[in-house]
Structure to design on (294 residues):
């Protein structure tokens, strides 16, 4: 399959038609390049707050609600584009108020298929900004999506930095990592996490990023990143583990070819078998004995 992963800039939108045209252009470009899956980043939907004007977009709390209120229409637009162009889409994540979970918004990404199916994944662990300033809440449980492309798991940004979350998705062949990182340090934390999870689970991880400045928002005002597709540095994969990567802070798609037969092979007969040997840690992962050498 061919995967397109985005380095996505956030724009001030004059109307819903502007957003629909922007998203339609991005998806059409991915499809024209042969993509079977297009991955958008974390909080890429925050640009929708600008539809309510600068005062709302510039207010942390009001912007959460403004975006959540239009996510039904956003979902219908993505579903239409996935069907029209015949590809799977992971939509940019957004704050969503879900009464079934609690009074605070969750950070939610929705996966769309060309057949009209859709399902969501919520972020599990909040960054300091999300929990201390923005008060975004952890959402529903981790899921594995069994699709025509293979088994897909999603770890939203910071979630990719936690090995046990990756292990919970060890049956997934593709691990999607939509991210939104302010600084180069944040980008590399998430990238290292995405690559580590690919190593541990012997799978392919796909990282998408927001890029550029959005001075109108106190939440996503500065963005650093690029698209990347990673695998385990083992049989059938590049020695670096990097299948494809974009150019830092340059908007556009990064595309890469992914063969899940290589995932199956490396899991069965790789030079190392990290995924199979995970449980060998049991009994050896307790508190380490301190040996004094002074």
């Amino acid at each position: 399959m061919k995967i397109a992963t985005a380095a996505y800039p956030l724009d001030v939108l004059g109307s819903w038609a502007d957003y629909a045209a922007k998203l339609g252009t991005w998806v059409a470009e991915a499809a024209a390049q042969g993509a079977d899956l297009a991955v958008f980043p974390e909080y890429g939907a925050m640009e929708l707050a600008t539809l309510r004007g600068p005062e709302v977009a510039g207010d942390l709390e009001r912007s959460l609600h403004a975006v959540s209120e239009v996510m039904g229409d956003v979902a219908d637009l993505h579903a239409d584009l996935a069907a029209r162009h015949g590809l799977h889409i992971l939509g940019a994540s957004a704050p969503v108020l879900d009464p079934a979970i609690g009074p605070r918004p969750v950070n939610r990404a929705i996966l769309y298929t060309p057949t009209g199916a859709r399902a969501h994944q919520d972020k599990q662990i909040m960054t300091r900004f999300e929990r201390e300033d923005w008060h975004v809440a952890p959402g529903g449980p981790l899921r594995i999506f069994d699709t025509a492309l293979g088994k897909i798991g999603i770890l939203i940004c910071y979630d990719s930095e936690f090995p046990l979350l990756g292990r919970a998705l060890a049956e997934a062949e593709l691990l999607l990592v939509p991210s939104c990182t302010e600084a180069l340090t944040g980008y590399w934390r998430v990238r290292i996490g995405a690559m580590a999870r690919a190593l541990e689970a012997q799978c392919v991880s796909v990282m998408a990023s927001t890029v550029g400045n959005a001075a109108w928002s106190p939440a996503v005002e500065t963005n650093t990143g690029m698209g990347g597709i990673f695998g385990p540095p083992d049989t059938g994969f590049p020695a670096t583990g990097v299948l494809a990567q974009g150019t830092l802070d340059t908007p556009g798609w990064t595309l890469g070819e992914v063969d899940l037969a290589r995932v199956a092979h490396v899991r069965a007969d790789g030079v190392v078998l990290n995924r199979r040997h995970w449980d060998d840690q049991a009994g050896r992962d307790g508190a380490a004995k301190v040996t004094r050498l002074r």
Notes: DSSP finds eight helices and 14 strands in the chain. The CA atoms of residues 12 and 18 lie 9 Å apart. The first strand starts at residue 2 and ends at 9. The two ends are 56 Å apart (CA to CA).
